[in-house]
TrEMBL record:
The lineage of its organism: Bacteria, Pseudomonadati, Pseudomonadota, Betaproteobacteria, Burkholderiales. It is an enzyme of class 6 (ligase). One of its GO terms (cellular component) is cytosol. The gene is tyrS. This is Tyrosine--tRNA ligase. Gene3D superfamilies: HUPs, RNA-binding S4 domain, Tyrosyl-Transfer RNA Synthetase. It is found in: Cytoplasm. Catalyzes the attachment of tyrosine to tRNA(Tyr) in a two-step reaction: tyrosine is first activated by ATP to form Tyr-AMP and then transferred to the acceptor end of tRNA(Tyr). Its main location: cytoplasm. Its EC number is 6.1.1.1. ATP binds at residue 244. Homodimer.
Length: 410
């Protein structure tokens, strides 16, 4: 593509840099030539572009996988553009069917308000609140009224709506599709009209809705937005996407020590994808780190740096330093500074029953397997006898490298 030919404004080095930042780690940026024109125009005129992310405040499992899109927003924000964090308090009352094979229940107003505050707190851990425009789509959706809704519905046809993958599959299998579900992508698209969005971000499952926004902006005489989708983040196992149900996640509210240790547990291969999607380091800095590792530097150094960056983002730099020291202490056989306490009655008690009672083993059989594998310690001493009984007293139980519990047995 001849970059100079596709825009009326000069494609300077800073515009090229902005395009590279935009493309970092993305799944798709469509249409790329239109986005380049917007970037060049913005630099030439000094008018920031309007970058929109809409999220329905459904009850989330908040983990760092959810921050991938927010990180991209922050990168664009740091380029000087206007970031709009849109709470879909109106669209939540419809229910987004994206990726579903049945209708998703709508939320109550009370649920929406509680969850909206949760999302806002989450966003402010990544975005700069002073440079973020927080909006609610009820601002323009409620006043639209019945007449406005009908006029909006007239701007999109059923055939195109049925091209949406989840609608098509449900229709072919004879599953119910409610008319109100067609309104969801229309209302999300109308958000882009109301906000005069230049770029809308979303997950890969939102591509259809984002394209509806482009179509509606054209229908209303606006310049169509570009769309940017981000990939899903693999979890700790490096196989499945990060989720609580897979137990391969890092919650953004987890303790610093746990967060740091979990980042260090990922594979060396997965680490580089996490760097691309989660780190705020430049691609040049990441490439330099990767070259050093390829040249013989211990990959753990890179992983420690990533763990400290992520921990500091959701806690503080001091917490990240303490978490690193805590990890070093534990790797050398030490006990963390902060561990949970529990009191259990029933002494003398077998080690297997105690592990289960303390929540460190799922069952007696699980406890036996842990002991056989040398993964159980009592007061730093490895337990090899599955028949061990503990008398009344206070003990520090350890399972594996990261699970500790101070147990007072009576």
């Amino acid at each position: 593509m001849n970059q100079q030919a596709v825009t009326k404004h000069p494609v300077t080095d800073s515009v090229k840099h902005a395009l590279a930042v935009s493309l970092r780690g993305v799944e798709e940026l469509l249409p790329q030539d239109e986005w380049l024109r917007k970037l060049a125009r913005s630099e030439a005129t000094g008018v920031p572009l309007r970058i929109k992310l809409g999220l329905d405040p459904t009850a989330p499992d908040i983990h760092i996988g959810h921050t991938v899109v927010l990180n991209k927003m922050r990168q664009l924000q740091d380029l000087g553009h206007t970031v709009i964090f849109l709470i879909g308090d109106f669209t939540s009352t419809i229910g987004d069917p994206s990726g579903r094979n049945n209708t998703r229940p709508a939320l109550t107003r009370e649920q929406i308000e509680v969850n909206a505050l949760t999302y806002k707190r989450q966003a402010e851990l990544v975005l700069d609140p002073a440079r973020t425009e927080l909006r609610y789509n009820s601002e323009w959706s409620d006043p639209l009224g019945a007449r406005g809704m009908i006029e909006l519905a007239a701007k999109y046809n059923v055939a195109r709506m049925m091209e949406r993958d989840d609608f098509s599959k449900r229709f072919k299998s004879g599953q119910s599709i409610s008319i109100h579900e067609f309104l969801y992508p229309l209302m999300q698209g109308y958000d882009s009209v109301a906000l005069k969005s230049d770029l809308e971000l979303g997950g890969t499952d939102q591509k259809f809705n984002l394209l509806v926004g482009r179509h509606l902006q054209s229908e209303y005489g606006q310049e169509p937005q570009c769309i940017l989708t981000m990939p899903l983040l693999e979890g700790l196992d490096g196989v499945d996407k990060m989720s609580k149900s897979k137990n391969n996640y890092i919650g953004i509210s987890e303790a610093p020590n746990a967060m740091f240790a979990k980042v260090l547990s990922i594979s060396d291969v997965l680490m580089w994808k996490w760097y691309t999607l989660l780190s705020f380091q430049s691609e040049a800095a990441i490439a330099a780190f990767k070259a050093e590792v390829a040249g013989g530097r211990n990959p753990k150094d890179a992983k420690v740096a990533l763990a400290k960056e992520i921990t500091a983002r959701f806690h503080s730099a001091a917490d990240a330093d303490l978490a690193e020291q805590d990890f070093i202490n534990r790797s050398q056989g030490g006990v963390p500074d902060q561990i949970d306490d529990i009191s259990i009655a029933g002494a003398p008690m077998g080690i297997g029953a105690l592990l289960k009672a303390a929540g460190l083993a799922a069952s007696g059989g699980d406890a036996s397997r842990l002991i056989e594998g040398g993964g159980v310690r009592v007061d730093s001493g490895v337990v090899s006898d599955k028949a061990l009984k503990l008398e009344p007293g206070t003990y520090v139980l350890q399972v594996g490298k990261r699970k500790f519990m101070r147990v007072t047995l009576s």
